[in-house]
């Protein structure tokens, strides 16, 4: 054990792609992997290409993701509210009119949210199919970036940043 000042942080960097640390070190630290993979860069480039070529498709996809998240949150809130009401009800559950009303409301809202989630899944499939039309462009951009990065092995003058991948 070493006493250190409160707020002290130590940053350790390595060029090893997957460092082998003990489980104790992983438990006490935050290991962040900044490795750029061809698939990851391809997915990012796909989003950029679609924003450039079909911005309405990408904005629809983002809105769809927000709606799905909001609907799932709403379902969770309904379930929590219902469970709270069920556990806090004194006496017979059948006689509690407010609980019966909550059950009806929860059921109707749950059916509506389930329908929206099903529709969102179908729309998501269509958007994904439309996005895949541009997959080859993104893949080629990713390959081109990694080729440029490999040029640094020829001569250190060819070192580049990730921004060149976005510009390609």
| Strand and helix order | HHHHHH
Show unreliable segments.
none
Largest sheet: none
The portion of residues forming beta strands comes to under 5%
Helical content band: 55-70%
Report how far the terminal alpha carbons are from each other: 49 Å
The chain-level structural class is: mainly alpha
Rounded to the nearest angstrom, the radius of gyration is 26 Å
In DSSP terms (H or I, runs of 4 or more residues), the helix count works out at 6
Q: Count every beta strand, where a strand is a DSSP E run of 2 or more residues.
A: 0
**In one word, what is the shape?**
flat
Average residue pLDDT = 83
Brief overview:
It is built from six helices and no strands.
Chart the SSEs and their pairings.
Blueprint: H1 23-28, H2 38-53, H3 55-88, H4 97-132, H5 135-150, H6 163-167
Describe this protein's structure.
There is one protein chain. This protein is mostly helical and 168 residues long. 67% of the residues lie in helices and 0% in strands. The protein has helices spanning 23-28, 38-53, 55-88, 97-132, 135-150, 163-167. Helix 2 (38-53) crosses helix 5 (135-150) and helix 3 packs antiparallel against helix 4 (97-132). The longest helix is centred in the C-terminal third of the chain and has 36 residues, at 97-132. It is flat. The mean pLDDT is 83.
